[in-house]
Amino acid sequence: MKFFLKEKIFYKRQEWERNLIVLWFGTFMAGVGFSLIMPFMSLYIDTLGSFSHAQLNFWSGCAFSSTFLLSAIISPLWGRLADEKGRKLMLLRASFGMAITISLMGLVTNVYQLVLLRAIQGLVSGYISNATALIATCTPREKSGQVLGILTTGNVTGGLLGPLIGGIIASSLGYRITFFVTGSLMFLVFLLTLFFVKETFVPVKRVDMQPAKEIFKQLPNKRIIIGMFLTTLIIQASNNSISPILSLYVRELIGHSQNVALISGVVASIPGIATLIAAPQMGRLGDRIGSEKILKIGLIFAILVFIPMAFVQNVWQLGVLRFFVGISDACLLPGVQTLITKNSPRNAAGRIFSYNQSFQAMGNVVGPFIGSTVAGFFDYRGVFLSTAGLVGINFLLVKKHTKSLETKK
Q: Rounded to whole angstroms, how far apart are CA atoms 69 and 90?
């Protein structure tokens, strides 16, 4: 009876609201699928052969970066197909492809197979960008900030909670079972998308489809769109610059302990909780006062949070500051996506959001490289200071690229 009532309430909602509910879960699971392997990547690879310390680091890096590199390269192609064939079809392709590839990772017998499947996962990706494009084109524009803020919590929270979920499942059931569980959940996403997501789509014929160069020439606010692409890259690079050293920093704060892995997972996941709470409110506020203002506030707040992370004396202080990072994240990506939505033609939304995903994927590759390089030359604490500097550069770029919005007001 309760299920029937909930189902009735679901169908009473407007079409865009029903899409939002299903796609939130889908983007959450896509975020989990990309990040759950992080806590035990090296440990899983170590079970696939006999490797030296240097070889283990090399293959772990390959397995991590191959997904995002391939995603960055292929995203524009999927975006073009989305504008031509529809975003729902791309959502089905991505969710089914991830269900298969992630499940197969639990069956690999050597590291080459794992890296290949991680690369294929990047090739079939695109669920998040197409979910964003679909929601952006079917939601009333006056609600776009709030709605995209809610949708973003799915991706961000899934990405941040993924390591914790993966660590818990792996420690309880084993590494391989983790992939089977996640693959099954992605197949559930495929089914939910197939039966419950509705799209009113007018296909653009291939002969009528403008080249990307022409689209960007005709954009009324081209500077804003390109600026948001760069902003997305730096946001992701900033968030991921501390990924390679976070568990090592935690170990430095608490000493050698059997609980380092668990505590590191909790600390890594704390921002996801804050983002989940704050993003809808920040999106709603952005609709009232301007998304560009929310974006700038979030960047200033991030600078003020990253700097003291370099000087914490215990893991609890680090955890509190990581919570504040989640609040700043709630201002950033929703703000970027809202500005892209409001300054993009709807018939090219798929391609424009796919380009944004390419920059996001590049940030996921560049960030850990910056963090590990800085840590190698200085120490763990230097990574937080360099990240604060990176966010400062991002603030100046946002201020420059959104100047036209200030003059309009």
A: 19
